[in-house]
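ok trying again, last paste got cut off:
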Amino acid sequence: MRDRPSPSEHEIRETTPESVFEEISADNPNAIRAYLQFEIDNGFTTLDPRTTLDGQVAFRGQQLRSGKLRVIAAREGNELTATSVVVLENGTMGKDISPNEAYAAGTLVRPDKRSGGIGERAAAEQDRIAREAGKTALRTVIAKNNAPSARLRMKVGYRLEGIEERPATQERPSEVNYAYRKDLTQEVEARQWKNNVLAGNLHRVDAVGEDSPPELMIDSQNTEAVKQALALEYRGVALLRPEDFDDPRPLDRNAIVFVRETSSS
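nice, full thing came through this time. structure:
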């Protein structure tokens, strides 16, 4: 009996007994169309009115072929359950990145498949793609109100390092987004921040100053306090929710854990 050949690193990767991840090929327009339609159907993106879906498929194929970006997708049978994009070249999809960085341009998980580990596996695939491209860091931006995505990114090693504010226009309301970065050269440190809270060693603050402790929590919606923390070299490393705790709950709303860069933590 002949030995079964080992799969290449770009072949399908199993995630769960029901789901598999695959990388979409530039030479498979049907797969590109399916991934774009999946994002449109789930409200994750919109079709540029200046083009057609076929035109967008062709354009995305060109980007894939030239190595500007790569796309991964999760499937159960013939149905897509998640898609994720990694930008590898500065300016692609409007992303501003340095030569050593990649950009995690977004991961969409079908609503009925969330909380099943697919998001974490997609993040791991993004890490792999970035490393294969010789990148040492990944960046992404998440809306201030998107707690699930922020929690996931920090769980897998991203740190909140900046704020991007966009003023309101006639087309859209004002936006506040948090900017995250993951150092791919460092191991992810697992910390049980919940236990620190329960032990009384980690407290939420409403303002941050030079005399603030090296580890603290800030309401995730308190933009001004987040700005203060970032200016003083703190970085966000985790997001805790009230439901993470049994009653009586020490938190009444989501809080981001910040650690000062100069601390030994």
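cool. The helical segments are 29-41, 53-65, 118-132, 147-155, 193-198, 223-231. Residues 1-17 have pLDDT under 50 and may be disordered.
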